[in-house]
# Entry
Amino acid sequence: MKQIILASLILMILPRAAFTEEIDAAAGEALMKLNREFINAHAVARKLNLETGGPIILLQDGKLVLVRNGAETTSEIILTEYDTVKVFAHMPVAIYLMLGPPGAGKLDTQRLQQLAEYHGQIDRVEKQIEHIGLEGESLKRQKQLLADSRKFLETVIQRQEFSTEELYAFTRSMLPMIQANIAEAAASQLDAMHRQVMAWKKEMTPEEWQKLRVSVKGAVLARDGNLAMQYFERLLNLEGPGMRLIYMERYVPPTPMLTLLATRSVDRGISIAFFDNPDRMFRDVLADAAAAHIREMKFD
# Structure
């Protein structure tokens, strides 16, 4: 009798379990379809916003892109001068990176070879220095950067060792020339950007200009004090990012989280070695120079 009752209970339970699974599947599908409608509605709303929200300027990868009336117009704003002075500013930093992070003391064969190869690259640039498109004080400064960097490398290679104190003496002696290059690079980029934006402004109606929105794409650690963000805040009389101005961080593949972690650590060392400030590299390296140049620009 007990077996019959148990079998009956099992039979009663089984159909109910199957029915519950059907309900769960149906409920899941209904929720998925409901959320799909939200996603579709959001996509439609975004499309409408882009079509009716006025002109947009995008800054990414050294280019300005104007999106207006369904068309895109692209303009290069990173000029040759910017890239050239940036390369020379990076030279003492490259030497620091070859020495500082691995540590002071005796140099093994591999590091000596690396330093010798870099010395050879400096030598080749020195021989072509008159043909890089710079002149006056800027050209003189690049020659000095090359000469001082070459001299320091020769000393280290000859002795096959160095101390942290010697390295910091070198890096900090390079800082004034690096900062001058930074100021030159910032001015070059800002002036090129301003010329193009003002030309586009002349093509817009006052109503379009009031609706203009801007999106800037840049490096993670350059968010604070970003040159372009400073410029567009001043241009549009804004007090910071908001509905008319946004910043999108650019990550480096393939492992952005690990890359960011390592970058912060390495850049902290650069900050100390050159600026004697552990946090200086955690904002746009052009930030201070950009702020100074923007104060001198005419926006009327």
About this structure: Strands lie at 56-60, 63-68, 71-76, 105-106, 161-162, 213-219, 245-250.
